[in-house]
Structures are given as C-alpha cells and as structure tokens.
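G., the chain you wanted modeled:
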Amino acid sequence: MISKARAAAGAAVLSALIGATLPGAALAQSVSGGTSGGVGGPGVSASTYGSGQQTTTPDGSSIGVQGGGEATAVDGSAKTQSDAKLNERRAMQRSTAAARDEDERARSRTRTVVREGEVRSRTMSMYKQHGEKPEREMTYSVTTPEGTTTKTK
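Predicted structure as tokens:
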C-alpha cells in the first residue's frame, strides 16, 4: 500500500496587488526567485518548493509567494503542509513534507520571504535510514534586482 500526501501548488498561493495595476510595464522592476529540494530512499521520499516575486512600478507594486510539497511512503505514513501569509510589505510561505516507515525517514521544508525588493528562500532536506547517519542538503537563495546568490551545502 502506498501512502501519499500532496499539497497542490495552489494550496499556498497568495498574491496581492497593492496600489494600481501595472500600466507602465516597461518601467516595471521585477524580482523573482525561490528554491526546491527533496530526498528519498527505497521506501520513502519527500520534496518541497517555494518561490516569490515582487514587481514595482511608479504606480504601485505587487507581491506574492507560492509553494507546496509532496511526500510518499510505501509502507508507512506521509504528511505535507503549506501555508502563506502576506501584508502590504512582506509575503512569507512555508511548506513541509515528511514520510516515514519502520526503517527510513525523509523530511523536507522550504521557507520563502519576499520584502523590500528581495526574495529569500531556503530549502532543507534530510533522509535517514535506521542505523545510519542522516544525509542532509540545504539550498539557500537570495534574489535582488542586481542578481541571485545561491549557496548549497
């Protein structure tokens, strides 16, 4: 029996238009970025993703985030969760996914924040098999109008 939990991309999608619409698209400054990641083994897997964007024009700005995740366990349990919050100045999104059975565990989480013309996103994933050390990976990204910086551990 396969246990599957999925948070659809639209589950944690929020965006708000602040001010007027974007009539001067040629004058618009847009910043978008995000991270994704996942881990898995023979019986379990978990992955998450998140992204954000901010567009600014002389007439106003828009800000938004989105994300989700997926977890699968062949003989065990799987769970995902996504939520997002935003106000006029900041948007934040968080997604988690976890799967486990008797011998294995997989977990992934992503957090994305958009504020002050900058998108910061971090995804951390972990896989552990019984009796072994956990395998971990992390991706961190910062996107500004000048470019994107990404670090992976």
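The first strand starts at residue 3 and ends at 7.

Shout if anything looks off.
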